[in-house]
Every structure is written in C-alpha cells, then in structure tokens.
Amino acid sequence: MSCALLLLLTSLALVMGTGTAVEIQRPRGVPQSKRQFYEENKPFTCLDGSSTIPFDQVNDDYCDCRDGSDEPGTAACPNGSFHCTNAGFRPAFIPSSRINDGICDCCDTTDEYNSGATCQNTCREMGRKERESLQIMAEITKEGFLLKQQLIHEAKRGQEDKQGKLTELQGSKKGLEGKMEALRTVKKTAEDPEKEAKERHLKSWEEQKELIRMEKDKTRMAEAFLELDDDADGYVSVAELQSHLELDPDSDGSLTETETQGLLGGAGKVDTSTFETVWSGIKDKYLSEVSTYVMKTYVIQSFPYPKGSPGSGRSNEVSIIRFENANVCTLLSASQSLICGPEFIWICRNLEKEIGFDFGPSAEFAYLYSQCYELSTSEYIYRLCPFNRVSQKPKFGGSETNLGLWGQWAGPEENLYSVMKYDHGQGCWQGPNRSTTVKLTCGKETVVTSTSEPSRCEYLMEFTTPAVCQEPASLDEVLHGHTEL
Amino acid sequence: MAAFIVRMGPLLVLWLAVFLSGTWAVDRGNFKTCDQSAFCKRQRALKPGQSPYRALLETLELTNTKLTLQLINDNNKVRLLLELYRLQGNMTRVKINELKPLKPRFEVPDVLINDPPTEPLSLLSQDENGVVLSLGADSQWLIVSAKPFRLDIMEGREVLLSLNSRGLLAFEHLRIRKDTQVDPEGAEKKEETDAANEPAEGETAKEDGMWEETFKSHTDNKPNGPSSISLDFSLPGVEHVYGIPEHADSLKLKTTDGGDPYRLFNLDVFQYELFNPMALYGAIPVMLSHSAQRTMGIFWLNAAETWVDISSNTAGKTVFGQMLDYVQGSSETPQTDVRWISESGIIDVFIMLGPTPTDVFSQYSSLTGTQAFPPLSALAYHQCRWNYNDQEDVAAVDQGFDEHDIPYDFIWLDIEHTDGKRYFTWDPHKFPQPKDMLQGLVDKRRKMVTIVDPHIKVDSSYKIHNEIRSKGFYVKNKDGGDYEGWCWPGNSGYPDFTNPEMRAWWASMFAYDQYEGSMENMYTWNDMNEPSVFNGPEVTMHKDALHGNWENRDLHNLYGLYVQMATAEGLIERSGGVERPFVLTRAFFAGSQRYGAVWTGDNTAEWEHLKISIPMCLSLGLVGVSFCGADVGGFFKSPSTELLVRWYQTGAYQPFFRAHAHLDTPRREPWLFGPENTALIREAVRQRYALLPYWYQLFYHAHHSGQPVMRPLWVEYPQDTATFSMDDQFLLGRDLLVHPVTEEGGRGVTAYLPGKGEVWFDVHTFQKHNGAQNLYIPVTISSIPVFQRGGSIIPRKARVRRSSSCMEHDPYTLFVALSPKRFAQGELYIDDGHTFNFDKQKQFIHRRLSFANKALSSRNLAPGSQFITPSWIEKIVILGASKPSKATLKTPDGKENLLEFEFDASMSVLTLRKPGVNAGVDWTVVLQ
User: Fold this and answer.
1) Helix/strand/coil percentages in chain A, nearest 5
2) What residue stretches are annotated with the Glycosyl hydrolase family 31 C-terminal domain (chain B) (predicted)?
3) Distance from A244 to chain B by nearest Cα, in Å?
4) Model-level pTM?
5) Is A231 helix (H, G, I), strand (E, B) or coil?
6) Which of A55, A246, B299, B721 is at a distance of 20 to 30 A from B233, taking alpha carbons?
7) Whether residue A3 has pLDDT greater than 70
8) How confident is the model over B424-452, as pLDDT tens digits?
9) Is the dihedral of CA A273, A275, A279, A281 positive or negative?
10) What ipTM was assigned to the predicted interfaces of this complex?
C-alpha cells in the first residue's frame, strides 16, 4: 500500500558553506516558517485548531484536518498546499492536488516523489535565468527611469512653452485686431496715392517677399520630406504620406491609397527632387507631424512684413498704406482671415486641448502626443497614435479600420497610468464597437511590441515606454528579495 | 461553434443580406411548415376513416421467420406486401412495401446492428375476416383484420397497440410521369380508379407538388414523383409519449392538433426557438409510450423527411372534465393516436413491447446498438470557444485553468484553426507548431479536439478536395456533376458518406501521417453535418442531389450519422484498433449513439435555453443517445454571470459537459467574473470530477445494456404518475436525483423526491428526506440540489486534480446511503480508461458493493475479468447510520483490522477512516 511509504518522510536540505552539513528536519511539504507546528511524536493540532490527531497521522495520506494542515506532503486534502523549497530558485506553494499527479511542478522535483514521473531538478537553471532576466529588467528600468526624468523635464518646458504660445497667439490676435482697427482708420484717411512710388515699392516688396517665401518653403519642404520618409530610404511612399489625413482632397475623413497616389503625382513613391512638385500641391494643407504649432506660427509671423521698405521713418504698415488704399484692403482682409479663419482657431483649440490632456502625474507621457507607432504582423499593420487613435490596415490592400479613439487611462487604481483604453472604434457586425486596451510596460524605447484580439473586436496592444519606468530598487534588493535560504 | 455567422467577409455578404438581415432569432420563413412540404400537406389532408386497404388473406404465407401477406388498395388496385416478424426480446416488426415497385424503394442500411433475430410466429386461427397469430410469450396475440386492413397487438384481452386503426395507411406507389395533356376520356377512366386519397395526376398533380416543388427560390425536381408513406398507431391507455428527438420542446410530447406535426429532418437552424415542433439538427424516429401499466416503443426506420402527428382523447380535457369522467365512470379510456408520415422509402416499423422501461431500452439497443463507451476523460470538463485564436491563446487558457485551480481535460479548436476552412490543415500563422501545442497538453495530461466538418473547400490546391474529386466521392447534383454549395470555406463539395469506400478513405485521413500535426491526444468534432448548405433549400442539401443511385430525399437524415461513423472509425484505425475514439456530432440518426457524443447545437445564453437542455437530453437518452450535452453558458449572446454559474452547476450533472461560445461574444473563461464566481464555477467543475467514477460506471452500463445515463424519473418510478411529465429534474442512473436551478434569482426550488417508503440524502448536507413528496429546498448561488437515493452506494474520488488522467490512480471514497431498512447496494467499475482492452481482453474490475446486516462488502461481479489497479479505498461515508462500537475490516488474507471512525450524531453520518484496502479485491467491513 502506497500510503505506508508516505509516513512522515523528512526532507533534507543542505546548507552549504562552512563545511558542516546541518540537517533540517521537517515533515514533507512544510515550509520552514511552519516547522514549529509539526513536532515529532507530539499530538498535532490542525492549524485551524479544529482537532488534534496523533503525530503518525500527519502525512499519512488521509485528510483529518478541515484546513488540510495534517497532510502538507500528500494529495489527501482537497484544500491543502505543498511547499517546495526549490533551493537555487524561489520557494513556492502548490495545491496539494499537484502532488504525485505525474506532472513536475516544483523545480526541485519534490512534488513527484511517488508518481513514476521523471522530473529534472531545474532550480539552479531557473534561478540563473531569473537572475539574468531580473538583471536585464533592472538595467532597463534604470535607464528607462533616467529617460523618464528627461521626458518629465522636457514635458514641463514644452507645457510652459505651449502655454506661452497660446497666450502669445491670443495676444497677437488682440494686437492684430487693434492693428486692423488702425488700418481701417488709415484707410479712411489715406489719400493721394503715389502711384509710381507705390508700384516700384510694391514690386520690390513682392520680389523680396517671394524670395523669403521660397526660402522658407524650401526649408519646410526639406523638413517635411525628412519627416515623411519614415523608413529613411530617401523616398516618400504612399503609405508614409497616407497618415496625413489633412491632405485628403475630398475631405471625407479618409485618405485612400488612390487619393494619396494622386497627391504623389501618380507615383508609388518620390525622391527629393520629385517631391518638389508634390510639395507645391500639398504644402498649403500639410501639417507637420512634429510640432504643428511652431511651423504655423512661424508662417504667420513671417508672412507680410518685409523689413526696410521704402518710406523710411515710418512704420512699415503705415508706409505701405500710404502708397495704396487697395493694399490696406489686402492687409485688412489678410489679418481678418488670420484671426478669424479656421486655421487660427484650429491651432488655438489644439493647443488648448493639448494643454488640457492628462499626460500622467509629471506629464511624462506628453512626448507621445501627436506621435504614431506601428507594428507590422503577418496580415496587418497596427498603428497606435497615443491620445488619438488606434487603427489596423491590411498589409495587402484594403481600407484602414479604426480600432478605437482615445478614451482614458484605465489601469488599476494603484497604477492608473499602466493601461490606456481606446474605444468607439468601427462597429462590429452584431457586436460592440471595436476597442483597444494598450498595456504599457517599462522599456528604453517607445515601441508597440505586440497586438492581439483576445475577444472579438476587443484588441490588446503591448507598448513599451520609458514613461512608465519606476524608480529602480537596488539590484541586490531585487535579487535577494525573492529567495529564502 | 456553428450556425451561420459572419466572419467570412465578402463570401457571405450576399447570403447574409438575404438570410439574416440583421435579425436575431430564428427566421421561421426559412423552414417549411407541413403545408409547405407537398407530401406532408397531401398526407395530412387525409382524414381518419375507412381505409381503402384490404388484406388478401389467400396470399398469406407463414415461414419460420415471418409472415407475408399482400394488401390491396381497393381504390387503385395497387398491391402492397406486408411482412410481419416476431423478433427476439418481445418485439414485432412490420414491413410494408409495394409488391412490385417500378424501381426499388430505399431501405435504410447501416442502422440496425444486425439482421434482428426472429422467433417463430404461430397461426392460432383464421377465417375470412382475418387471422390470429400467437406472438409467443406472455399470451400475446397479433390480430390481422382483412377489411379494412388493420393490425392489433393484444396481451390477454387488452389491446396494446393498433396499426391502421384510423385508416391512415397511405402508400404512394411509384408511377410513370404522365403527359400533362390528358385526353378527356382517359381522365374520366382514371377517375374511376383513382380514389379520394389518390390525387389525380397531370396538371393538378403538378400543383400538388408531386413531380416538382418550389420552396422560396429552390425548385425540387422529383423524377420519381410522389413516394410518400404514412401509417397510424393507436395506443389505448396511453396518455404520455416521449422521444422523437431532436426538438426544443418538453419531455412529454404535445398533441399536434391545430399546429404542425413534429418534424424530423436534419437542419441547421439558426437561433432555434423553444417549445415548438420544428426540426433541428438530428432525427431519431423512435417514440416511447408510457403508462403506469406498460412502456412500449415505436421505431419508424425511415431516413427521409418525416412528420409525426400526435393526438389524444384526453389532451383537450380539463381537469374538471377528467374528474367528471372518473366520477361518472365514463367508459372512454384515454388513448393516444400517432401518425407517421415520410417522404419516401418503405414502412419498416419496430414495435417494442416492453413492458418495462428497462425492457424497451434493451429492445431498442438490441436493434441499433448501445452508447459508445467513451474514454473516461471525455466525461470530464471540456473548454471550447469559437475560437481559441492561436497557440499562445491555447497556452494562456491552459495556464489560466492551472492558475485558478480549475480542472479541465479537453480544449477545443473551432473552424478558425484551419488554413482557410480546409479541414485537416492548420492556419500556418496561428498554429505553426501544432505538435508543440499538443505536446504542451500531453505534459499536463490534457487533450484537444479539433473540428473536421464534412463540407470540403473546392480548391484545386487542397489535397483532400482533389482526392475526393478524383475518386468520384462527392455527392452529385441531379445532372450528375459534383454537387456544390456554400459553407464556411465558400464554395464546397460534400463527400458522399453513404458510400463505404468513401468512408474508408475518410477514416484513413485521420492516420497520424495523413492528418499532419495530429497526435494521440487529439480528437474530433463533426459539425455542420446535417449537412448545412448555406445557399441550399432550408439551409441544407437539395433533395434531388444524388448519393449513388439514391436521392438525398431518401436518406437525408442518415448523412450526419455516416460522417460521425467514418470519423470514429478513423480515430480507432489510427491507433491500430487499440484506443476508444471520441467524436462529437451535431447531426444524428438512430444508431448514432454507437459513435460518440451529441450536443444540442447552437443554443442561446438565456435561462429558457438552460431549462430546455434538460428535456432535450432526456429525450435523447430515452432513444439511445446517452452522451448528450448543451453548450454551457449558451452559444449565442452573452450570459449574465448568474446564468453562467447556474449553467456550470447544471452542466456538471449532464453527460456531456462543455462550455462553448460564439465568436462575437466576449470571452468567458471561468475566471473572468471575479474571484467569487470563479470559486463557484471551480466548485461546480470539481463536483463533476469527484463524481467521475460514478459517471464512468453509468456509461459502462449504457454501453453494456443500453440503459440511459440521464433518466426521467418515470423510468425508475414507472407507476408514479406524478413523475410522467416531469422535466425540470432528472436522475443519473438510479441513484442521483438532480434538480437544477434554472430561474434567475432563484431562492429555492420544489423538488419531487419519488418513492414511497424511500429516503433521499442531500449530497451537500447529508440531510435525509422522505420520498414521495414535493420538497421545497432553499438554494443559494453556491450549488444546486442533488440527492442520493437511500439504498445506494456511490463511489467518488475526493482528490480532484487538474485533469481526470491525473486522478487515475487516486483512491476512492464510498458514499453509502442506507435505505430505511438499512440496506444499500452499488457498484465499482474500473479499467484503463481509454482502450478497448475492457472489451477485447476483459481487462476491468467490476465489483458489487453491498451493505446489509451491518456489513459492507465488495464482491467480484465479473469473475472472468482481470485488471490491476493501484487505487484503494480511502474513506467510507455511511449516511443514515447509527453509531457502532467498533468497525472491523476483513481482507481475503484473513487479516482483521480495526478501523477508526467518526460519527456525526446530528446527521447520522458514520465516516470510516482509511480502510486502505485495494479497490480490486474482496473485503468486508463489519460494524458492531
């Protein structure tokens, strides 16, 4: 009868080091911490106090205690647990039902002492691997945490900057309004146009303006090309351009492949020289990926005011206005369109929106704003644009599917910023709208590492970023916090 | 999985637009009513009355094995041949065919396990009105009346059953299609011969759908013309009839007056409705009748579309009316009349005369065989979902069960695991290393099921398709080309499983070197085998499609049986005949029990669907199919947490225990509903695992003797009329009574505990209750009421592990529930759990456990058998006991050991500590 074999076997653990082997005796499956309750040859009281039994009924393969404490080393109790020492790795408790079930659960093989299963002691190997991976993790955390500090710093500056810009924009709007008022007055009173002077001046002004404009435009074009060329192969491709929804010719909210190709003049991709012609077609709509507002404000500020215009001694505006009434009108309408036009409002709104986002406790996630990260699988390209949207596009043709729009931070209470939720994506047949959960883990780089669809139309994305790296505990602490013995 | 839901993209868009249009319930319009099925309409138009059939007594011939006799239809002079057989085991077979059909009519092959052995009939008397035959045993007679033709089976002076007593025998003989241009004279002549029940041919015939019939956009060409058959049966003294699955209806069949008959026609019904007689996935044309005096069965062996009408002279009566009859001594005895109508084939009916329910089960299984004895693990818990997405998903779910300490044995892969719905293949991206995945399960002593459906993608780069096509194994369309229809893979062919060569080839495809990536721990699921054809009439195959010489019309209901038969054979063959197969099927017919398990198809996550799972599986059990289950949680829609928990608790006590969910539903693995619900589900599954020894023993009996595993109460209490309509509770074997909680927010149930003078013990509390009472039992969410019969002994394994294989060598705990007379009896069956060695080499242990005279003993029930088990007796729990002064264990070696024991006086429970004796040997425990 097998139970005879099970009677109170003691396990041996050798403590290495001084050369003296110390024998620790305890009933099978009992952790060191509970050793004291199992005293040989004394009646054993169930740990819940429910009853007391002779010691020879401990580990005799029959369950006497309601809490299972009399059978720490056998599978007799339905609610018992077995302690594996796992020297070299981490000790563990396993449910009693896994003792002698033919499956190796403890790396020290102690759970399979009578099942015929052949188990290898893998504790040392596992310990080594764990230490290695902990070490790697710790290094990542350390570096990641440094990066995070940088991000926080940048975010702070960026935030102030943006607030400043917004204030400035709002201020310049006011200023422009004031100037417009002035212009209107000037327009009323302006007389005696000096036609010839005006023409001459106007011509040179235009030339100068054009020159500046071309220069700026070239810079912008070069910047745009570099930005667009995601894979840095020296070409801008359809796919690379396609994310720029603002270029959509029919403004239906989606930029199809055909439309994009049209923008590229029918080509699949263009190099820098061809891009010049493409650029002229898209520059008016093009929004920079990096820092939209900087570009835009730059353009606005640099637009119509050449320095050193004729009529010295007067302010530029006034001198121009004095040349020609019509010019006053042009300026008026230009100013008006600047401060009342959709672009200006859009910029202001975006700035306000961005400033209003919850970018984490120290705004460490701010750098993700208006960025996009892609992951290519065998069938799809997944694209995560943090704080904006998640989408999926078939690799081999077909239209993009919206997997969810930014919803909120959705981590557990103690770690709210570990999960992002995107919802209200494209609807599913007879199902919910698509949604995506993005799990954030600490990493040196900002990368989408995996995507899956665990449930129909509910996507899961793994995303690494330094922004979630926690202040690292010292490596020693990490390594020793987990080991007994 | 199944029914038809979209995820096939453009392929199905058109189909969806037509069939679904966004609705979320069965579209009845897709399926025929009797009125829309031409032969049913024609047949049902015939009213009871004088039968035109007359027996030509001068043609009577009596041999050792049978009596033959010609019948003539006096209206059209067409002659029929009647064959009567007395079969061993108290059965009578009645066969009626045309005497000289234009061409052979279909007779169902492969369903009977052999040519049923006959007993001699003897002629007792004969005159010009008829003949009287002795049926041998029990003073039973068969009376053949000549004019009109009628058969009565009598026992003593009592009529047990009459055939054609209402004159509804109707046999549409095969005929040559006549030109629609009929000259007036000819027409007149015809009228003389063709009578009222013989519809005129020609133009009217066309209208009657005799030669062509259109349903929705589908036209059914009928080159053989009308061929339907019908016969009525009267059952005096009978008020309760059961069986003829598959219908989502109550256990007791309802009368069909004023509605449609029950329909038997294997169909893939999308989101089926409850409590109606519509056809579903399977068909078993067997009806049981039961009264306090006798149980009988009618087995109508016909595989064509069949409709069954039921009427009763008491059904319409109110309770008051019945009382009045009783008080006034009304002479009218209750009677149930049944009428069977089939589209083609012959009349071949087996009358099983009982008289007990057990007898009827034995009789039916002597004809069609018994339940396949499944591998033990197949009786454990199955985790399924449409779909487990990839290998990582499978590994994660497997890990989830371990993390939450919930046992399971099988994880299932639905159609998405294949490479583009090409069965026998794997999606190369999602399942690149199937053997690694299967080995991972082997390491946990667990198993897998993959789906293999019978529709084959028409794709010249698909090996299976090419072979079937080149061998000419596909079903043909009426014009002789390969029949094609739409199913999951798009355009698909349907292998002709009625062809034995095709089946042999199919079976060979399961060999390990043919089915790449398969391993010993991988089993099979046959879905969509009605067959489902998305763009076919009623979502199935065209009736004029050809299986060799026969039309699908003739054998439609057999297709699913053949698919499962060939698949099960494949699994047996791949192991060299050693291992028992496990195959789940959705479509089935009489005899399907021999090949594996059946589930109730694509149900819905609603309380009513949980409720209906009980009568649906009870009905199947009555007609041979014990291995039945419903998708736990419900396939369509998403269950509330409470419903899911209740479904697990119910499913744990139903034979086939598998959770399944539709692709579009949120995930519902047991641990996704918070720790409390995880614990509730864990407990339900653990109860199942602890009881596996009893389940296994019940299935051994089902396999051995055809007794159902899950039984209506009346089977064990045949005289207790209170049980006759009961289908909210059931018995497992004789000894466990289960009353699931199927009401939302249920705080209590009223269970009926049968058996005057008997007692029942609550298995959770050990509380004793008297039999023959309605008992209100308060319930919590933690469990459902289950009772053990006083007088029974049930073996359990209390050490629940992560799979049934892990528990193989574990010790047993015996639960001895004493009867009021302090008696109890039970069994213990043990074998290796997965091979045929129990059968071929008698390698098993079968023991009788009995408690009498204060002694519990174990004795060998099968002296010729041998098997060695390491399992031992861990504990004996005696319910309803008194406290002994000592307990002594006596073993065959003459040793006597005193056993320690504990006695709980409040519940009268005696627990004997650790007898420790091997489960395979003789022993006795004496209480003093």
Assistant:
1) 45, 15, 40
2) 706-794
3) 28
4) 0.83
5) coil
6) B721
7) no
8) 999 999 999 999 999 999 999 999 999 99
9) positive
10) 0.90
